[in-house]
Amino acid sequence: MIRMKTFILAVLFFTGVLAAQSGKNLIIRCDDIGMSHAVNLAAQEMTATGIPFSASVMFVCPWYLEAVEILKNQPHVTAGIHLTLNAEWKNYRWGPVAGKDAVPSLVDENGFFFPSRGTLFANNPNTAEIEKELR
Predict the structure, then answer these.
(1) In whole angstroms, what is the distance from residue 36 CA to residue 19 CA?
(2) What is the 3-state secondary structure (H, E, C) of 20-55?
(3) pTM for this prediction
(4) Distance between CA 128 and CA 135 in Å, rounded?
(5) Are 80 and 56 spatial neighbours (Cβ–Cβ below 8 Å)?
(6) 19-70, pLDDT tens digit by residue?
(7) Which residues pair with 77 in a beta bridge?
(8) How far apart are CA 89 and CA 102, in angstroms?
(9) Other CB atoms closer than 10 Å to residue 102's CB: what's the count?
(10) Nearest 5 degrees, angle CA 19-CA 22-CA 24?
């Protein structure tokens, strides 16, 4: 947690320096929110600064509801959806929002997304199922 606070303070400092010197702005992007409670806590700390930033929420991950609660009443945060068709972590996997039975060509034998784009394409994903999952 200390490292995240140090990082946020450093970003804020250098953002101010850059803006003052060049008239340019730094846009901060917080990615993969909803992936874990720790990621959500970092996003919550970032919202507390009041600094505008952009965020993407992974709705396929188990902590997305907490992420939505953190971000929904933050007018200085622009949030979007992080579309996902793979689960690359060895010991932390997720599956489709549509459910494994609705998109069987997109999941492995355990109902999780494949670990890579290459593995997904090697299993001949059905285009209609991809559209169903991403909509």
Answers:
(1) 32
(2) HHHCCCCCCEEEEECCCHHHHHHHHHHHHCCCCEEE
(3) 0.77
(4) 11
(5) yes
(6) 667 777 778 899 999 999 999 999 999 999 999 999 999 999 999 999 999 9
(7) 53
(8) 23
(9) 13
(10) 55
